[in-house]
Design goal:
Elements (H helix, E strand, L loop, with lengths): L1 E4 L2 H13 L5 E4 L12 E7 L8 H11 E12 L4 H12 L15 H8 L3 E14 L3 H11 L1 H8 L3 H18 L7 E14 L1
Parallel strand pairs: 1-2, 3-4
Antiparallel strand pairs: 4-6, 5-6
Helix pairs in contact: 3-6, 3-7, 5-6, 5-7
Length: 201
């Protein structure tokens, strides 16, 4: 098994987690748009809410198809365009706009778009799924958690002066609070995502 990410700190966390669980996993720093692997090297290529953030999705689809064996499986999970997370990304983009021409990451959560990206090179199946975020603390602490560990939030905040950082964090807290099905001491929020299985042909 091989794990890849472009963030060294996340790779360090993954190595530590694998060691604690006694798992033998090779971890490599790399880019989903230019995978450092041979053609047909893997039976399964999987991305859980990761490759959807690469700025050139057509390159991601091409690389996934290249490194996956014919008849293998490409599995992806990506937040849906109408999901709670999609609104979170809009808040990020409001304060730290992405470069011009970069498509929204949540388009990977649109079945039609996914089929277009893989084209005639794969048989594609999709399912709409739901994940439940359940934290034993209120929305403000959830936002602090994302501020500390979630890449897109960290990147957006790093570009802002303190006053705008505070405004963004306040808006994010309001967003979590408005969707919260829990209470002041528990945050319970639902998010829709698209599960994709693509078989190279």
């Amino acid at each position: 098994m091989t794990g890849l990410d472009h963030a060294p700190n996340l790779l360090e966390q993954a190595r530590a987690a694998a060691q604690r669980q006694g798992l033998k996993i090779r971890f490599i720093e790399g880019d989903a748009e230019e995978l450092p692997f041979e053609a047909g090297e893997f039976d399964v290529v999987m991305s859980m809410f990761g490759a959807m953030f690469a700025p050139r999705p057509e390159r991601v689809a091409s690389e996934f198809l290249r490194v996956c064996k014919r008849g293998g499986r490409i599995a992806m999970a990506s937040w849906a365009p109408t999901s709670f997370q999609a609104e979170t990304f809009k808040i990020n983009a409001k304060y730290a706009p992405p470069p011009p021409g970069v498509p929204a990451p949540v388009l990977w959560g649109d079945e039609k778009v996914v089929r277009e990206r893989f084209g005639s090179s794969a048989e594609v199946e999709t399912w709409k799924r739901e994940v439940v975020f359940d934290f034993p603390f209120g929305p403000a602490k959830v936002v602090e958690l994302f501020r500390t560990y979630f890449g897109p939030t960290q990147v957006a905040l790093a570009k802002l002066e303190p006053a705008k950082q505070a405004a963004m964090l306040a808006e994010m807290t309001d967003h979590w609070a408005s969707a919260n099905e829990g209470d002041a001491n528990r945050t319970l929020v639902r998010g829709e995502y698209l599960e994709v299985h693509a078989r190279p042909i």
